[in-house]
Design goal:
globular; four-stranded mixed sheet; Cytochrome p450; binds protoporphyrin IX containing FE; single chain; 9 strands; alpha+beta; three-stranded antiparallel sheet; 8% strand
């Protein structure tokens, strides 16, 4: 009996607590609704959830389209209890991303919530970001990427073996699965110096840990929601909580730390990111002998190298893999376009080795990749934070305001892209591109925070695969594709396809 009473009183206390939070929130919103004060239009926020409720219900990309259609090119929304301004006006976006990028250097970061990612490029702010980016950028120069090419080729060999197996067995397969394995193997090999060989089902423990980063469980969705509440998120972050699975983080971090240690002791060498960071350190030491110490740091600590490697994994794995999946889906459902891409590859490359330079000569392929990224942009929101009060078009926004560029509605605006649901690579002919506002295509973002590592691994995989096999749709292929609901745009379901060996 007394146990029931205790249970009842806990429930009652919790209920009262929740009601108080709710009342406080509604009161706060009514008196402090920042958008009402500034005059920015937007939907009435749903208590505590804001637009997250609609984004979860409809899918974020669809919700963004609906918001822009209803409220215009500048919309004020709440994400949880955080105010965010969505901007699709191209001139204002150009100011935010490029012209006034000194005001918008940073992304939104939950202080203390980034764990081992804290020194990563996506998270770093102001001078620290500039410093790290200037050290890391040369790693992705064409010369360095060329050096990584043979590592990528090894993985692409395994990918092709799998495709040929499917062709010979006439087996229907989910292209998303093998693309995920391909990009994971490439990133692990080129950045961490680890051969995951997930395409061959090796290294299962590491692969399962890496995959856990990208799997959203209910607990993680809940944690994510809490972390979106700035003060609470920051408090929990400082206490050591993280949205990412702790065991997987520790397992992966340990492997990378061991690789760094072996390289420092010269026990092994490889043309990968970690090696480049260590070699760079040696070059700087040589250059600086006898010089005064500089205020700007030129090398990264082990912790910082680890953070960059983890960020590259997070930023590069899913983006590249979904690009490849959407691309091959297009090939299978648009056979005329597939034939044109194939003919260009044959003409430009024949049976020659696929080199970095040759990949850059394939103009029609680039157009098809860009049109794929227009229709299915993997990253559907770019974000920036104002570092001071700023005049955003007609509105004066306070320091700290978060701006989001919703990429999906920008890429599907029928005034800029006639018949936006049609796949038309010719939209990316140089003459057509010149007619458009530069902010009309934002698959890689823009300005100094733009993605700098373009779709090289995806391009290599695509070209080598298309030389060997032709992609076909089958009964199980979902046409049109249904899209998923979260921030990295993916198809909702598997993409089942078939491949046939090419005779030539
Ligand atoms: C199809 C492939 C890819 C797409 C569509 C893509 C897209 C993007 C986008 C939209 C951004 C934000 C840009 C902005 O805020 O203006 C970004 C940032 C970034 N991406 Fe990618 N990305 C791709 C591949 C990769 C790969 C393969 C890597 C690394 C291995 C990578 C690493 C990064 C990093 C580090 C940033 C943050 C840059 C910074 O803040 O300085 N991305 N990417």
């Amino acid at each position: 009996m007394s146990l029931f009473l205790i249970g009842d009183s806990i429930t009652l206390t919790l209920l009262i607590f929740l009601i108080l939070i709710f009342v406080y929130y509604v009161y706060n919103l009514r008196t402090n609704n920042i958008f009402r004060r500034i005059g920015i239009p937007g939907p009435a926020p749903i208590p505590l959830l804001g637009e997250l409720f609609n984004a979860m219900r409809r899918g974020m990309y669809k919700n963004d389209v609906a918001l822009i259609k209803k409220h215009g090119k500048i919309v004020g929304i709440y994400e949880g209890i955080t105010p965010i301004i969505l901007v699709t006006d191209p001139d204002i976006l150009r100011n935010v991303l490029i012209k006034d990028c000194h005001v918008f250097v940073n992304r939104r970061v939950i202080e203390g919530g980034a764990g081992p990612f804290e020194h990563g490029l996506t998270v770093l702010k102001d001078e620290q970001w500039k410093n790290a980016r200037s050290i890391v950028s040369p790693t992705f120069s064409s010369a360095k990427l060329k050096a990584m090419h043979s590592l990528m080729n090894d993985v692409s060999d395994m990918y092709n073996e799998r495709l040929l197996e499917y062709a010979d067995k006439q087996e229907i397969f989910d292209i998303k699965t093998i693309n995920g394995q391909y990009t994971l193997d490439i990133i692990a090999s080129c950045l961490f110096g680890v051969e995951t060989n997930s395409l061959k089902n090796e290294n299962i423990i590491l692969i399962n840990h890496l995959k856990k980063f990208f799997t959203l469980t209910l607990t993680r969705i809940f944690l994510l929601f809490i972390f979106l509440t700035p003060r609470l998120g920051s408090y929990l972050g400082k206490k050591g909580y993280t949205v990412l699975p702790r065991d997987s983080l520790e397992y992966t971090a340990n492997i990378v730390i061991q690789v760094i240690a072996r390289r420092r002791q010269c026990l092994e060498r490889r043309n990968d990111f970690i090696q480049m960071m260590i070699d760079h350190e040696e070059e700087i030491k040589d250059q600086e002998v006898g010089q005064q110490s500089k205020s700007l740091r030129k090398t990264l600590s082990d912790k910082e190298i680890l953070s960059q490697a983890l960020v590259f994994l997070a930023a590069g794995y899913e983006t590249s893999s979904v690009l490849m999946s959407f691309f091959f889906y297009v090939m299978a459902t648009e056979p005329v376009i597939q034939e044109k891409v194939y003919q260009e590859i044959r003409q430009e490359l024949g049976d020659d080795e696929v080199t970095y330079e040759k990949l850059n000569q394939l103009q029609y392929l680039d157009m098809v990749i860009n049109e794929t990224l227009r229709m299915y942009p993997p990253v559907i929101r770019l974000d920036r934070v104002a570092s001071k009060d700023y005049q955003l078009g007609n509105y004066l926004i306070p320091k700290g305001t978060i701006i989001h560029a919703p990429v999906y509605p920008i890429h599907h605006d029928s005034e800029v892209w006639p018949e936006p649901e049609k796949f038309i690579p010719e939209r990316f002919l140089p003459a057509e591109k010149a007619k458009r506002h530069p902010m009309a295509f934002l698959a890689f973002g823009d300005g100094p925070r733009q993605a700098q590592i373009f779709a090289l691994e995806a391009k290599l995989g695509i070209v080598r695969a298309l030389r060997l096999v032709e992609f076909e749709r089958c009964e199980e292929t979902e046409v049109p594709l249904q899209l998923g609901k979260i921030i990295v745009l993916n198809s909702k379901n598997s993409i089942f396809l078939r491949v046939v060996r090419r005779s030539q």
